[in-house]
Structures are given as structure tokens and as C-alpha cells.
Write a structure and sequence with these properties.
alpha+beta; 5 strands; 166 residues; single chain; five-stranded antiparallel sheet
Length: 166
């Protein structure tokens, strides 16, 4: 009788550990900023460094802005045992920023604040790599006077257009 109860207890502990492990493995999610930007985040780790990628879009639509933060949180002594709390604090800091992809101070969790970890443990905004596609060549601009005025009025139209444009 004791053997089945022991197996049942071990199974329950294993299931609880699996649930806890899946919660720790959360590597992506969403949040909103005070400016009502809707952001998606994704965490990638490789070779000791962690990269947090963001993609934010204004509530009314518009173009999405993407950025990435990189650092080495494993250098922080508290990260090893409380990594879940570390990432919660980092995301909390990002939620409070009006524009998470705007340049600013590096991100650090309270667990790994100044004096508790080396500066490399902070997440720093990576420089923008620029647009993936080249910008289109500028089109030659036509003189509005030639476009909208009859030929005999070009000089007078050009005067007023020049006056209006400053």
C-alpha cells in the first residue's frame, strides 16, 4: 500500500517540477507602454550573452519599431538562482519607458544593480543596423509653377511659389 502512495507522490512532484520549469522557460511575450504602444519581446541566449528583441507598434497603427538589447546577465551572482525574477524586473523597466526602443540608460534589474554586478551584466541597446532595403532614389522635383500654371504665367507663379515656400 505504501509503494503506490510513494509513486503517486513522486509523480505529483515531477508534474509540479515540470509546471515550474515551463514557467521558467517563458522566452517571449507582450506588454504595453504608458504611451499605449503594444510591444512584443523575445529572449535569445547564446554563448553567455542574452539578447532581448523588441518590436513595438503605436496603438493607432503606424510602422513597427524594432530594437534589441544585449548583455551578459550570467555575470550577476543572483542571476543563477533567480533568473525568472531578473527578467521580470527587466521587463517591468521596459514597460515603464515611454518609448522602449529609444536610446537611454542601460537596463539593469534591482537584483544586479550597481555594485552587485559588473557593468557587462546590464542590457544595452544595440545600435540600429539601418533599413534592410536601400532607400529609393529621390525623384526629381518639378516646379509647381510649371505644373499648375499656364506657360505665360510661369514667372508670376514662380514668384508666388518662391514667396510661399520661403
Amino acid at each position: 500500500m505504501k509503494m503506490p502512495l510513494a509513486l503517486l507522490a513522486l509523480a505529483a512532484l515531477g508534474a509540479a517540477a515540470a509546471v515550474g520549469a515551463s514557467r521558467e522557460e517563458a522566452r517571449e511575450g507582450r506588454f504595453s507602454t504608458p504611451e499605449q504602444q503594444r510591444c512584443r519581446w523575445e529572449l535569445r541566449s547564446a554563448a553567455g550573452a542574452s539578447e532581448l528583441r523588441l518590436s513595438c507598434r503605436a496603438a493607432g497603427g503606424g510602422a513597427a519599431r524594432s530594437c534589441a538589447y544585449r548583455g551578459e546577465p550570467r555575470l550577476c551572482p543572483a542571476y543563477g538562482t533567480r533568473s525568472h525574477q531578473y527578467w521580470r524586473q527587466i521587463l517591468s523597466r521596459l514597460r515603464r519607458r515611454l518609448h522602449p526602443c529609444a536610446p537611454g540608460a542601460p537596463l539593469s534589474a534591482r537584483l544586479c544593480g550597481p555594485g552587485r554586478a559588473p557593468p557587462e551584466a546590464q542590457l544595452r541597446l544595440l545600435p540600429d543596423s539601418g533599413p534592410a532595403t536601400p532607400a529609393p532614389a529621390p525623384q526629381p522635383t518639378e516646379d509647381p509653377a510649371e505644373t499648375y500654371c499656364a506657360e505665360r504665367w510661369h514667372s508670376l507663379c514662380s514668384f508666388f511659389v518662391g514667396f510661399w515656400e520661403g
